[in-house]
Amino acid sequence: MNLALWIAAGLLAVVALTGGVSKVFVPEEKLAAAPGGEWTAEAGRGFVKSLGAVELLAAAGLVLPALTGIAPVLVPVTAACWVLLMAGAMITHVRHGSANFVVLNLAYLAVAAFVAWGRFGPAAFTA
């Protein structure tokens, strides 16, 4: 169980890092032209950059607390927050008719829910 949770958290961290880097560093015109990024054309630049920063923090929060042993409870908290973020992403993609991305976000949501459940419950980090 512990290994599966580490793998799931690591994969989510890679997804969050990729999304965060693209939202923070890719020019808004290029981001809006990318598949699944159409919504960014309607969103404010500050919102997109802030969302990218949140995703970068999520990438760190999914693995660093457990690796360092400093406040490891932040791993399931971050995973639970990722569930909420993916719910918002699914709503956004439904509004823009991107069904493929809704399914992808649902998969990320399920993995995050697994990490939150596992780290809050049966495989919680102990102090």
From TrEMBL:
<dbReference type="Pfam" id="PF13564">
    <property type="entry name" value="DoxX_2"/>
</dbReference>
<protein>
    <recommendedName>
        <fullName>DoxX family protein</fullName>
    </recommendedName>
</protein>
<keyword id="KW-0472">Membrane</keyword>
<feature type="transmembrane region" description="Helical">
    <location>
        <begin position="56"/>
        <end position="85"/>
    </location>
</feature>
<feature type="transmembrane region" description="Helical">
    <location>
        <begin position="97"/>
        <end position="117"/>
    </location>
</feature>
<keyword id="KW-1133">Transmembrane helix</keyword>
<dbReference type="GO" id="GO:0016020">
    <property type="term" value="C:membrane"/>
</dbReference>
<dbReference type="InterPro" id="IPR032808">
    <property type="entry name" value="DoxX"/>
</dbReference>
<keyword id="KW-0812">Transmembrane</keyword>
